[in-house]
């Protein structure tokens, strides 16, 4: 019977639905899996925290490693150049190798901190035979064109001494003309090519490195200052190449153009010249290829803001971005304090996160230190003191900010979301910053954001662009509502600049936001031209980024408390609440019903749902103590105190009695 049942399942009628189901299950994953910025197919080594140190320690080759962040727009834009460079110098790998390490990958947070990577991309050179404590030499130049970086690689190789020279790297210094002339008429088992060039020219050294992976040919360079040598070989212009054949004959190399590529190709195609056999000994040296895990796509509603995005952003900001700074002092410390003040007072987050931010703020205010080691701040963020009820998840959980590929969106998206939420909160609750020193200032949030981006945001070029925009017009902002609109305008300016760029997620094209489906009333036309109705935009922003529109869906549930999202607007008067047309200086008339259907007057099911969430027994940090455990501890403690006191009185009374008895006897 069982067998017949099994056969029935595989009848054609059942096969197709089963296959369809399988396809449906697999399909959503296809969009989000796969490589980050670099993949196994690229001619470079993908390093991780597991392989970096082991690869560098006493490596027989030098390394040039790009520490990047897969969310950083400039890293995304730069990745084709880096791949092209890696392909261009592939044959140099017995002398110097190209690697990448993604600092945005959770696995690599610690190692990037250890190597002091503050900005992305950071280029580091590591000499051959480096020690395990070597954190490399940073290339700080602004020119990152392929040719510039390639020439820097040559310079870097030449900085090695005789003792630490990469084992497989041929000599790059000019040869003595006498040594070359001695080859005339000499029979050997290989070709010798000589590039005659200027002292500053890189052609000779590049051709030497291009041919190092080939047997049957040796390349040397001679400088054009060797006049007699040039005359003897009949060379009048440089760069030029001269070839000594194995049979002892010699002549000028016959290439169409005196360029690196022409010289190298000519030599590689000579009869008897072939690539060195066998797998490169270095092929196995460190470097894992690929590190992606399959992530499941999370369904989300684009008319909502997700708490999981903002919490993940805060996690990344506190534990990764800021943690790359060993100490905070001076302007950086002031920026950090203001940032914590603004977030602690305005972030409409879960109680456990807000408590953590408030505790951090109290601690910073109570510590009049001029210099704070970041580890102390991290201890607090990680709640090492085990204060109950404060917690910030250590998991990156992108929802509204998830990208169709792992390298897209994520952190920068969450940062925009956070700052839009903060400007809106400041406008909805103007008293929130009272007694912080930031009250009365309509620019408080924006200036804090500006300084944060300038000092700490890993994408330095993004920071420079943002700074330029702030310099241009920030001072014109005179009210909290204008601050909301300023950030919206500037964000749209960035969207417009980045539309079509490599960092754009094809599934989330950069458009002018909010799109007509989110807010039809925001869009108008004047004489055939699109214009924004800024009153409507302001109302929309105040609703969109209000606490009522923040969904708790996908927030991590392993926090010590799962209290509902704080509806800080609950205490506000009804006209301050972000309901449809009632926020701030809205246009009279407010939103028509149609707009309500587009999520402007959203049902508050998010908050309602959150309120309905059961309050689980409190787990106490990672140790897993429940609130019952904690109560028992307290009870035991109280009981021990009472017991000790009783014992104390008991022995005192007894000792008094003994004394009385003894004294009487004595008398
Ligand atoms: C301050 C700053 C400067 C940056 N500068 C650069 C740069 O110079 N070059 C670069 O390559 N990358 C830059 N980035 C990153 C870039 O802007 C995006 O954040 C990143 O490409 C991810 O884009 P995204 O599709 O997730 O949408 P994002 O632009 O990150 O937007 C996130 C969410 O905000 C909402 N939103 C969109 N537009 C607006 C708006 N106008 N007002 C309010 N809400 C809006 C939408 O819901 C959107 O999904 C910068 C990021 C920040 C925080």
TrEMBL record:
Residues 1-34 form the signal peptide. Keywords: Disulfide bond, FAD, Flavoprotein, Glycoprotein, Membrane, Oxidoreductase, Signal, Transmembrane, Transmembrane helix. Residues 553-609 are annotated as: Disordered. Its cofactor is FAD. It catalyses: 2 R'C(R)SH + O2 = R'C(R)S-S(R)CR' + H2O2. The chain crosses the membrane at residues 618-651. InterPro entries: ERV/ALR_sulphydryl_oxid_sf, ERV/ALR_sulphydryl_oxidase, QSOX_FAD-bd_dom, QSOX_FAD-bd_sf, QSOX_Trx1, Sulfhydryl_oxidase, Thioredoxin-like_sf, Thioredoxin_domain. PROSITE patterns: ERV_ALR (PS51324), THIOREDOXIN_2 (PS51352). One of its GO terms (cellular component) is extracellular space. Residues 18-158 form the Thioredoxin domain. Residues 593-609 have a biased composition (Basic and acidic residues). GO terms for biological process: protein folding. The keyword Ligase does not apply. Its EC number is 1.8.3.2. Residues 404-513 form the ERV/ALR sulfhydryl oxidase domain. Catalyzes the oxidation of sulfhydryl groups in peptide and protein thiols to disulfides with the reduction of oxygen to hydrogen peroxide. This is Sulfhydryl oxidase. It comes from Scleropages formosus. The gene is QSOX2.
